[in-house]
Design a protein that fits this description.
Layout: E1 9-13, E2 22-26, E3 34-35, E4 43-51, E5 58-63, E6 70-74, E7 90-95, E8 102-106, H1 112-115, E9 118-122, E10 130-133, E11 141-147, E12 154-159, E13 165-170, E14 178-179
Antiparallel strand pairs: 1-2, 2-3, 4-5, 5-6, 7-8, 8-9, 9-10, 11-12, 12-13, 13-14
Length: 192
Amino acid sequence: AMSPDGRLTLAGFGGEVGKGTGAYVSKDRGDSWEAIEGVALDQFESYGMGINNEGDIIGIVGKSDDIERNYFVSTDGGKTFASSEVTRMAQYLAHSQDMKHQFVTRVPDPLAEEILGQIAVSHDYGRTFHNIHVNYTSFYMWTSIACSYEGEYVFATTFDTHGNGFVHRSHDYGETWTEIPRQEDVELNPTY
């Protein structure tokens, strides 16, 4: 992840399937790196990191052998991290440029029925979260989440067990969601 001004870079060395060496931050556009000592994670999600311009707000989706998969937030530049039961089984992260507004999708398995179609939402820099249950026609898993610069507009995509894709949108910082109706007769050669 990169801060909006491009000065700070946050990276996790360790993938979704293999262990790595932890999370690191660069304060000079990648010329040098410092280990983040505040959380002992060694597996990270590809789309689960964020950092603001000041570097004091850092968010990481990750896990280790001793730490269950979750979203971890630091408000002190990575010295300490906190997680929440609300963000347990975190998957993807989207956030406003200042990280005031944060949106975390949750993996349905192994808690399929309990967290199916939920997005954890924070409006206080990740200090607290609440879950929003998205009304859906059909749902299997989230495939992405993204938001506008200030976090007012949020879009999340999903698909069902038949491979049909769905898009959900929020125009109020993730508080209410609407499934965008599918267009069955898509024109393949539009005229402009």
